[in-house]
Amino acid sequence: MTTYEAMSLMISFSGLIVSVIVLSFTFSQKKK
Question: Domain span at residue 28?
Answer without folding.
Answer: 1-32
